[in-house]
Design brief:
Elements (H helix, E strand, L loop, with lengths): L6 E8 L10 H16 L8 E3 L9 H8 L5 E3 L7 H14 L5 E8 L1 H4 L1 H4 L12 H4 L6 H16 L3 H15 L13 H5 L3 E3 L2 E2 L9 E8 L1 H4 L7 E11 L13 H12 L8 E4 L4 H10 L8 H4 L19 H4 L8 H13 L13 E10 L3 E11 L1
Parallel strand pairs: 2-3, 2-4, 9-10
Antiparallel strand pairs: 1-7, 1-8, 4-7, 5-6, 8-11, 10-11
Helix pairs in contact: 8-12
């Protein structure tokens, strides 16, 4: 039985650069937009919806619409950090169904390497207008130490080990070796990961994602337009989102918003985690992947440490191939917002266009999940389920 589509993804493009010292953000936006349109077989004149985050320079959609000379009738600037772009695809599908637009462009760009770590590196809580600033800033809270604390908590509750976390990096590196554009293509061992410098106990340097420039874009459209194009048909059949926060102090730091966004997406799609052939999982750190595996239902809570061992995430080896482009841990984490690349690799897998060495056989169902913001305080999860038609 054919599952109904919320919308179709007809174009996907990942910028080839990982260091954009010779490009402006506007140029990057143009590059990824035109790349996705070319992939879809469409032109700028066809676009009537534009979805972007705060990475779009100037006045966001207004400046980029002017720069690209887009004639729009719908825009969306949802910002949930790294998960924004999964929400944008979901919101684009909703806008298309509501008749607000027919062909939606979703973009991401970033230049943290070109701008320097002081501007584009680790995010620090330094906004005095943030409601919890007075309670968090004095303690020097950063993304690194909050994710380290989350990993430590999971270890305390479930006996998870650094070696188990290391398997996630190992799997990503096995995939990245086949990606000529990956930031790092070195295949790592568990021993290399756990012996790399400690950056925030218990997280080591190789537990952390790479910092890259570049970006990506996707094109979302209605079924009749998708079927008129000469591209493989990729349906969005499920979408969920969940902003997660401290619940007034009554929350568990090792549970992410994916526990809710995933449930919504699976119910809408009418599929189960066991049916998913490939998963793109947000990998800002190895612990981020571990928690999503549990919260999305691929294993029970507390069992992901054992689940990821012995290559279970490696394509052709394990039962849950993940991040076959090398992910944010090895390939690309543009602008410190890795959600877009998760969508792009899931589209490649469903189309059968991933590298032959990592292409999942009969990949008719894929999941992409993004985590944006900061685990331990406030974040948002976005989940998409894609199907080949």
């Amino acid at each position: 039985m054919a599952r109904p589509a919320l919308a179709y993804i007809v174009g996907a493009y990942e910028h080839p650069t990982r260091d954009a010292g010779d490009k402006t953000m506007a140029e990057l936006q143009a590059d990824v937009a035109l790349g996705a349109l070319e992939d879809a077989g469409l032109s700028k004149a066809d676009v009537d919806g534009f979805f972007c985050g705060p990475d779009a320079p100037g006045t966001g959609p207004l400046s980029i619409a002017d720069y690209l000379n887009l004639n729009l009738r719908h825009v969306d600037t949802t910002n949930t950090s790294g998960s924004s772009y999964l929400l944008h695809v979901s919101h684009a599908a909703q806008a298309i169904q509501a008749g607000k637009c027919d062909i939606a462009l979703v973009t991401l760009t970033g230049r943290p390497r070109a701008e320097g770590r002081g501007k584009g590196g680790l995010v620090r809580v330094d906004n005095p207008q943030q409601p919890d600033y007075q309670w968090e800033a004095p303690f020097g809270m950063q993304i690194l130490n909050m994710y380290g604390m989350t990993a430590m908590r999971h270890m305390h509750l479930y006996g998870t080990t650094s070696e188990q976390l290391a398997w996630i990096k190992v799997a990503a590196s096995h995939h990245a070796q086949h990606n000529e554009r990956a930031f790092t293509r070195k295949v790592h061992t568990v021993e290399e990961v756990v012996n790399s410098p400690m950056v925030c106990d218990p997280l080591h340097r190789l537990d952390c994602c790479v910092v890259t420039d570049g970006g990506g874009a996707v094109i979302v459209t209605r079924p009749e337009i998708a079927k008129s194009l000469k591209r493989p048909l990729v349906k969005v059949i499920g979408a969920g989102e969940r902003p997660e926060h401290q619940q007034g102090g009554y929350f568990e730091i090792t549970t992410t918003g994916a526990a809710v966004s995933g449930k919504i997406a699976f119910e809408q799609a009418g599929v189960t985690p066991a049916e998913i052939k490939y998963a793109s999982l947000y990998d800002s750190f190895t612990i981020t992947v571990l928690l999503q595996i549990e919260d999305l239902g691929f294993c029970k809570k507390g069992e992901a440490g054992r689940f990821v061992m012995d290559g279970n995430l490696i394509s052709g080896v394990g039962k849950l191939p993940f991040n076959t482009d090398g992910g944010g841990l090895c390939n690309n984490h543009p602008g410190n917002r890795g959600g877009m690349t998760k969508i792009i690799e899931a589209v490649r897998q469903v189309r059968g266009e991933a590298h032959p060495a990592v292409q999942v056989k009969n990949c008719d169902l894929a999941l992409a999940n993004g985590i944006g913001g900061q685990l331990g305080v406030r974040h948002a999860s976005g989940t998409l389920i894609l199907e080949r038609e």
